Amino acid sequence: MHTGRIIKALSGFYYVEFNGALYQTRARGLFRKTEESPLVGDIVDFQIENVTDGYITKIHPRENELVRPTVANIDQVLITMSLKTPAFSFYLLDRFLAYVEAHDIEPVVVITKMDLADDDDLIDKIKDTYGAIYPVFFTSQDEMNNDLLNIFENKVTVLSGQSGVGKSSLLNTLLPELELKTDEISSALNRGKHTTRHVELVDIGGGLIADTPGFSTIEFTEIDKYNIKYCFKEFNDYQNQCKFRECMHINEPKCAVKEALQNGGIKQSRYDSYLAIHEEISNRKERY
Predict the structure, then answer these.
(1) With 50 as the cut, is the pLDDT of residue 193 above it?
(2) Residues annotated in the binding site for GTP, as ranges?
(3) Which end of the chain has fewer CB atoms surrounding its CB within 10 Å, N or C?
(4) Which positions make up the binding site?
(5) What percent of the chain has pLDDT over 70?
(6) Does the domain made of 65-210 have the CATH classification 3.40.640.10?
(7) Which amino acids are annotated as binding site for Zn(2+), given as ranges?
(8) Taking the chain, what is the end-to-end CA distance rounded to the nearest angstrom?
(9) Average pLDDT over residues 24-53
C-alpha cells in the first residue's frame, strides 16, 4: 500500500503522484456505496500492480475543498484583482477574502495591470488596507514579480478573481508552458458557457498550482451569518474584548470591533463590506 496525492482526474482514472512517479488508478467500488468521490488534491492510499494499473482504497480526511475548480486540500488561493479594466473594488476583494477564509484556506492578494497604474493614492490605500493582514503582490502584464515565485514552495495553490483581471495572463507568466489562451477567449467563455475541462495540479516553485483559473463569482450560500465575522481576520484581534461573547459587531454595546473602527485599528471599507455581506446572508435566510 502507498500514500500519494491525486494530481489529475480524467475519464474515471485518477493519476496519483508518489515518490516522483505518476500512477494511473481507479477508485474501488466501495466509494460508490459511501457516495464518496476522489478529488484532485486528495491524499489517498492506493495499491498498484504497475504504473497503469492501480486502485484507490482510501481517501484521507480533507482539510478543505472548493467546487470551482474542484480541488481538495488547498493551502492558498491567489485572489487576483486588477487596478484598472475592470476597476479595482475594495468590496469585491473583501467578498473573495471572506469566501476563501470561510473555506479555511489562506488568501494571497495579487493586484494585476500595474502597467496601467495612474493613481498612486489607490495603490497606497490598497497597501494600507490589506498589507498588515495578508500578503499583497503587485504585477504588470507579461512581467513576472519574482517575489511571487517564492510563495509556492510546499503548497497547493488555486487562482481566483473576477473575470477580465488577467488570471490566465498571470498563469501564463508563472507557467509559460501552459499556454492558456487569454483575453478574447476567456472573456467569451466567462460570459456563460462553462467549459468542461479537467483540472490538473502542475509543478510550480517547489509546490503545485491548479492549471485553470478558478471561481470568478461568489455566493455565500453555505455560510452562516453568525460565522461571517470570523472571515474578517483582523476582527479576531478584538472580538474577545467585546462585552458579549456572541457579539456580531453591529448593534451591541461595548463592542471592541466598533471601538477599533473608531480608533483606526479596523478600516471603514472592511467594516462596511462585513455589514453588506452579513445583510446579504441574513436576507437570504429570511427568503427561504
Answers:
(1) no
(2) 112-115, 161-169
(3) C
(4) 112-115, 161-169, 242, 247, 249, 255
(5) 90
(6) no
(7) 242, 247, 249, 255
(8) 47
(9) 85
* Calculated CA dihedral for residues 223, 42, 172, 21, nearest 10 degrees: 170
CA 247 to centroid of chain Cα atoms:
28
> What does the pLDDT average to over 23-32?
82
pTM of the model: 0.86
Angle between helices 268-287 and 90-102 (to 10 degrees): 60
Residue 191, pLDDT > 60, answer no
Neighbours of 179 (CB within 10 A): 10
**pLDDT for residue 285:** 58
Going by C-beta distance under 8 Å and a sequence separation of 6 or more, which residues neighbour residue 177? none
Query: Which tops the pLDDT comparison, 89 or 179?
Result: 89
CATH class of 228-287: mainly alpha
Instruction: Categorize the per-residue pLDDT at 84 as very low, low, confident or very high, splitting at 50, 70 and 90.
Output: confident
* SS3 labels along 69-112: CCEECCCEEEEEEECCCCCCCHHHHHHHHHHHHHCCCEEEEEEE
Q: Please say whether the beta carbons of 242 and 252 come within 8 A.
A: yes
- pLDDT value at position 196? 45
> Cα separation of 272 and 288, whole Å?
25
Q: What's the CA gap between 201 and 186, in Å, rounded? A: 20
Fold classification of 2-59 is OB fold (Dihydrolipoamide Acetyltransferase, E2P) (2.40.50)
